[in-house]
Amino acid sequence: MEKHITVVGTLNIVYSAVNLLGAVVLVALAAGAKHIVEVLYHRHVIHPHDIPYELWDIIPAILILIAILIVIFSIPGILGGIGVLRRKEWGRIVVLVISFFNLLNIPLGTILGAYSIWAMMTSETVRLFRGEEALGKAEGG
Predict the structure, then answer these.
(1) For the whole model, what pTM was predicted?
(2) Of 21, 109, 111, 117, which sits most exposed with the smallest number of CB within 10 A?
(3) What is the DSSP code (8-state) at residue 53?
(4) Taking the chain, what is the end-to-end CA distance rounded to the nearest angstrom?
(5) Is the CB of residue 19 less than 8 Å from the CB of residue 74?
């Protein structure tokens, strides 16, 4: 089970870090959205009658909101992954909570979420994170 725990911790860190990178890209797009739209209008890629110009004013706000939501879920994913790698009970709980949300992110989040939930919920993992296995070895050895 040790390998599964290490894989879960590492994958949660990597998956959350990639999501954070996506949030940075969204913020960059939000910062340049107005300029991009102006260029598209001037090059006649987008015609004024297709999409009202005023509608494009709210796109940066929407992109920023999405980026904030990504950050809200990514930071606990990274911290939980670190906690799991250090075999901390709080890390296991954080990864479990984040994994339930990851189930909604089809397809990679669903795969990672299901695998993480399975690995973190086995009785061997629970005992390991609660320190019961170490106590058993100390008493028996």
Answers:
(1) 0.82
(2) 21
(3) G
(4) 21
(5) yes
Q: Give pLDDT tens digits for 45-104.
A: 777 667 776 777 788 899 999 999 999 999 999 999 999 999 999 999 999 999 999 999
**Cα torsion for 131, 114, 100, 67, to the nearest 10°?**
110
**Residue ranges per structural domain of the chain:** 2-140
Mean pLDDT of the chain: 89
CA distance readout (Å), 132 to 83, 96, 138: 18, 20, 10
Which tokens go with 140? 């028996």
Comparing CA positions, the residue from 13, 53, 49 lying closest to residue 33 is 53
Cite the DSSP H helix spans in 1-131. 2-42, 59-85, 89-102, 108-121, 123-130
Q: How far apart are CA 86 and CA 121, in angstroms?
A: 17
Question: Prior bond to 60 cis, omega within 30?
Answer: no
Residue type, 63: L
